Amino acid sequence: MDRFEVLSFVGQGSFASVWKVKRIQDNKIYALKKVNIKNLKLKAVQQAVDEIRFLSSVRHPYIVSLYESFQTEDKHICLILEFCNYGDLEQDVAIQKKKNKPYEEASIWKYFIQILEALNALHRNGIVHRDVKAANCFLGNNKTIKLGDMNAAKVIPTDMFLKTQT
User: How many domains does the chain have?
Assistant: First the structure.
């Protein structure tokens, strides 16, 4: 953690917090996702480890990039991820709604196609995302979609049947 300078808090999920950080060595900006595993059940810890495995195995322009991961002494799993400077699609929709400015149809199609291409890349690698929603579609450079948050992702089983209890 001493290799990064925390710049600001980005958000909080059910298992993790996300921070905007700068790597001291080269002044590059990243997102730091910290998962506190101290009080998590084994299944939730496994999900955090699986997210690292999945993001490490897929490189795609429409999927958030994982650069490194590590565990801290105080029982946190940390993921150093691509920072998406325009937030997520859910936030962007709220901003557009507040401005009373609907999206142009071309933008909607662009986002839709980018999400489908990201899902296709995951499926080709045997991964099912299982939590596709606007809050997990981040906006990178040029407001390009970056599908992220693979916490609920699973490997596609050979019988092609996944079940989830919600």
Answer: 1
